[in-house]
Every structure is written in C-alpha cells, then in structure tokens.
Specification:
The protein has 292 residues and is of the alpha/beta class. The chain has one domain. 53% of the residues lie in helices and 10% in strands. It has 14 helices and 6 strands. Helix 1 packs across helix 7, helix 9 packs antiparallel against helix 13 and helix 11 runs antiparallel to helix 12. The longest helix is centred in the last third of the chain and has 25 residues. The two termini are 38 Å apart.
Amino acid sequence: MKKLLFSSLLILFLGSSFGQTDNTNNAILWKVSGNGLSHPSYLFGTYHIISSAFVDTVPAIMNAFNDAKLVAGELLLDSTIQAPIMEASVLRGTTLHEILPDSVYQKAKGWFMDEAGFDIMGLDNLNPITIMTVCMGVVQQKYFPNPEGTVEMDLYFQDRAKTEGKKVIGLESIDVQVNALFKQVSLERQVEIMTQTFYDTLDMKEGITIMNKAYLKQDLNKLQSLMYGTTYKPEEMKILLDDRNIAWAAQLPALMKKQPIFVAVGALHLAGDTGLVKLLSEMGYEVTAINF
C-alpha cells in the first residue's frame, strides 16, 4: 500500500499542471537557441502515466537528451522527498470519514471496492487530495500498466543522466511543491474538489484514456481543455502553475549559458501565457517546436 501511495502521489507532483489560455504550437519537445547561447537546450514535457518505453521509441527525444550536459527536473527525485510527501498527505486530528459528507464517502467507498478491491477505511488517515491521487494510481495500474522494467519518464531521465555522468538538478525544492499542492488548499476546499471528482460525469478511466491519447498526439490544447474544468480558483492556480513556471524560467538563462540543458517537466508547464515556452520566448530566445 505504501508503494502504491508514493507512486500515486508522484502523479500529482509530476503531472498535475493546470493550463491557461494557450497560444503556443502543439508540441512536447522544444529547442531553445539564440540570445547568446553557444549550444541549444531543450524543453521536454513529461507525462507520468506513460513510461520510459515511449521515450525509447522516439529518437528526437533521446537525441535532445544526449546533446545535453545537464538534466533539470521539477524536483531532484531521491529518497529525501519521500518523507515530506508522506507527511503532507496525512490528516491531523481528524479522519477522512469525519470530514467528508456521508454521500461522498460512500461513493468513494464503493469506487475503491469496485476498482481496487479494498476498503477505503484503510486510507482513513489521508487527506482528500492524496485520496484522489491514489485513485489515479489505481486506475493507472489496473487499466494502463507500464511495461515491466520501465519507470516514469521523469525518474527515467534523472536515473539515466546519473548513469551517464551528467549532473541532475531540481528546479524547485520539495517544500515549494508541498506548499503549492497541499498547504495552500484548505481541508474544506479539498473536500469540495474531491466531491466534484466523484460526482463528475467523466469517470477516471475515461478521463485518463483521453489524456493519454492527447499526450501521444502532442495535443497540449486538448490537455489544457481537460484541465480547465477543475474547481481550482485563480489564486490557487497562480500558486500551482504561474509562480512556479516564473521561478523556473528565471533560473534557466544562467544554466543554459553555461551548458546545454535537457529540461524535463510536466507537459502543461510548457504551454500557455505563463508556460516556459512563452516565458523564454519573451526573454529573447528562439523556442522552436520539434514535432515527431
């Protein structure tokens, strides 16, 4: 169960990016050049549910990775992030059963029995955001299992970089992600979001199927339109997406000037008015889509 929980939480941490109005070309791989750079760097949009098996089938992605001297992810994925994630997922002084309306709790209880084969009571100490990520993990493992021996894209790039002697960095600390994804959202808001999730007409399997297809088509517009229907408020979206993208973009010029970088972050961090593609373009870089 602990392994399932941690894997599910990574979906939230590495793949939960919520888009704004999109005015970029559709692509998940971009070349960054010009503006004084002696070598190009690359932006690649990852997607947790599709594993490294996909990456290995696309030469353009691996060519970009091989050209880089430094690999940058949202977080440095090592053992130090597990404890803060687990701590942020636990309820304090209450239980899931106590904070959820009974109708929502019973609906969630039935879903877990049908889809996962276990009682939600075993997760009673977890907050609603964490419960929703566990649901995604259940759907992923049941209907979209990754091929044996493969790993999530973000981890794949970091592990491969270390094996090849490349430096790996995180663009933000685990504290920043925990604040953005957990601490800014009150328990009352988490209950609202979970209620909408379990009463949405689009079930989780169907939603993930649509997202999978959109990603494989490099259709960021479609992914953004799917995410636009969330209950997150503008001020929450600002912390979840805008502030983080701006902070990452501010770091990249100095890093790219020093050496070519392969930046691997959640795909929707690339798109929109505050996406990395637009932000770097506004800094004077030539950011070119590499379609495949």
